[in-house]
Amino acid sequence: MYDFNGKRIFITGGSRGIGRAIAQGFATYGAEIVITYKSKEKLAKELIDSLPGQNHSCLELDVTNSEDIKETISKSISILSGYNPFTIGSRNCRRSIPRFNSTV
């Protein structure tokens, strides 16, 4: 089938709904997952604990706050041991993320 071993997936809005399903799917096929949540920390942690594999994490993120975005990107780079993740925005974040310049 699919092999995502060694791949890193960063999913915004991953604590529930489509983002949760995406995280479960990629983890099932071996990916390391970092999900973000805005206010559902308990759901996010429960998901991370239930995913197959290891090295999964969750981070709080408000996609309408550019400083929060920068901080979360920095944290995810550290967690994922470098910056080459495949990013999935499951919460319409393209419309709500403000433009910002970053050298992270």
Summarize the structure in words:
With 104 residues, the chain is an alpha/beta fold. It has one domain: 3-Layer(aba) Sandwich (Rossmann fold). The chain is 38% helix and 18% strand. It contains four helices and four strands. The protein has helices spanning 17-28, 41-50, 66-79, 93-96, and strands at residues 8-12, 32-37, 57-60, 86-89. It has a four-stranded parallel β-sheet with strand order 3-2-1-4, sandwiched between helices. β1, α1 and β2 form a beta-alpha-beta unit. The longest helix has 14 residues, at 66-79. 29% of the residues are buried. Residues 92-104 have low confidence and may be disordered.
Per CATH, the architecture is 3-Layer(aba) Sandwich
Q: Tell me the helix content.
A: 25-40%
Strand coverage percent: 15-25%
Tell me the CATH topology: Rossmann fold
The coarse silhouette is globular
- The value of Rg in angstroms is 13 Å
Structural class of the secondary elements?
A: alpha/beta
Return the average pLDDT rounded to an integer: 79
Provide a quick synopsis of the model.
The protein has 104 residues and is an alpha/beta fold.
Q: Keywords for this structure?
A:
104 residues; alpha/beta; Rossmann fold; 4-stranded parallel sheet; 4 helices; 38% helix; disordered C terminus
Topology:
Blueprint: E1 8-12, H1 17-28, E2 32-37, H2 41-50, E3 57-60, H3 66-79, E4 86-89, H4 93-96
Parallel strand pairs: 1-2, 1-4, 2-3
